[in-house]
Amino acid sequence: MPSPAYQRILLKLSGEALLGRQTYGIDPVVAAQIAREIGEIQSMGVQTAIVIGGGNIFRGVAASARGADRPTADYMGMLATIINALALQDALEQEGVVTRVVTAIEMRAVAEPFIRRRAIRHLEKGRVVVFGGGTGNPYFSTDTAAALRAMEIKADVILKATKVDGIYDSDPMLNPDARRFDQISYLQVLEHELKVMDATAISLCKDNRMPIVVFNLLKVGNIKRAIEGEPVGSVVTV
Question: Does residue 183 lie in a domain region?
Fold first, then answer.
């Protein structure tokens, strides 16, 4: 088995990753597939942390645009991420992967509060850590939460799972002539307003030299390939 290119990773999953063919909620088949792939990389000795979004259940920004109070809408979105985190924990533990859900919003009956050193200790003991609740603050996305948690746990890389196989200069779903980047700098992402992660997250990664690998989650085995250092997507770096 090839040696992993990374020892500790932060996997960023959108809430939509759990949709599958559904229009709302969580597809248990998709959750199980993601769990199997994460189990594979755990068996390689990779320490895995996950930040998951809540867009399959509720989007705070969308609700705010329809007139909802923005902080209230964002907190509702944070609660949706915790639902997804618990669903992913269940799928992982059905695959025999010991998992802890850690949340920025205290709810001790269902998840641990975020304590940085405790989260790192879970990783060192071979447990998957799923971070729910975003940063715990309104006006910040789960992209920013992923960047923040990656710095806090001293991850080697952020793996950003998407529906496409990398970063393009325009939406490849709409433009068949869109150009794909194998490697791109943080500044280029910011200057061209490419929809990789939001500007706050990209700036945080830039300031701390945290590489980001953007890859297609829908292709089975891509998480393991990314861990093994194969060119499965686009890399954002200095």
Answer: yes
Local confidence band at 76 (pLDDT 50, 70, 90 cut-offs)? very high
- What is the total count of domains within the chain? 1
pLDDT tier, 20 (very low <50, low <70, confident <90, very high otherwise):
confident
Query: Does the residue 54 lie in any domain?
Result: yes
Q: Are 197 and 160 in contact (CB under 8 A)?
A: yes
Place of tokens 């300031």: 207
CATH of the domain at 229: 3.40.1160.10
Instruction: Please tell me which residue, 134 or 22, carries the higher pLDDT value.
Output: 134
Alpha helices in the chain (DSSP H): 28-43, 60-65, 70-94, 116-124, 142-152, 186-191, 199-208, 222-227
pTM surpassing 0.90?
yes
CA angle 206, 211, 215 (to 5 degrees): 125
CA–CA dist 145, 148 (Å, integer): 5
CA atoms within 13 Å, Cβ hemisphere of 110: 19
Domain that holds residue 79: 8-237
In-domain check, residue 3: no
The answer as to whether 1 is a domain residue is no
Question: Over 70: is that where the pLDDT of 1 sits?
Answer: no
Are the C-beta atoms of residues 30 and 163 closer than 8 Å to each other? no
- 3 class by beta-carbon count within 10 Å (0-12 exposed, 13-18 middle, 19+ buried): exposed
